[in-house]
């Protein structure tokens, strides 16, 4: 399985016990360590550490300068892959998994939401100079992300004007996208956030996350299946 050029690989923490300001350690070669606020930790079925977000004041972030320099935004419009384990709680609002964005200005965001009893995972790009379906943003979403269940999510952006492919437990899902597909995002000066809106003021994630990774290239279905089957027992997923 190819894992070259991983841009973000969050598994561990350092700097003291939570809740407090500590550091989420990035195992990738870029060392995108994140500041961690009120996030606690729990071990999965075989000892894999999962970050616990309380839905009120727990999140991670990294300031703009270093994430820009190390490629969290630069060049990703050529294609990228985001993956990880989630087990979320519906709080009646959109819950941010991760993003580096400003609404209708630039960047990308990945979030969960509920509408009329349907649970969505959405990958959205922001682009102030491109109007899509009457808005300065475009998106691809999938359904069936029922709260209270551990899932291995993967989203793969293939390039401008395509669908952003979604996988749940390594199985590709039906996708609904903006007219003309999801478009390239525009530049942003915002920080990288996990578990919270870009302005650190809303859309708090509630639940667990683990094995969060970001790759500045496109993973194949076979690679995604291999990663899922290598990790599923860590979080108690039997199949």
From TrEMBL:
SUPFAM superfamilies: Concanavalin A-like lectins/glucanases. This is Uncharacterized protein. It comes from marine sediment metagenome.
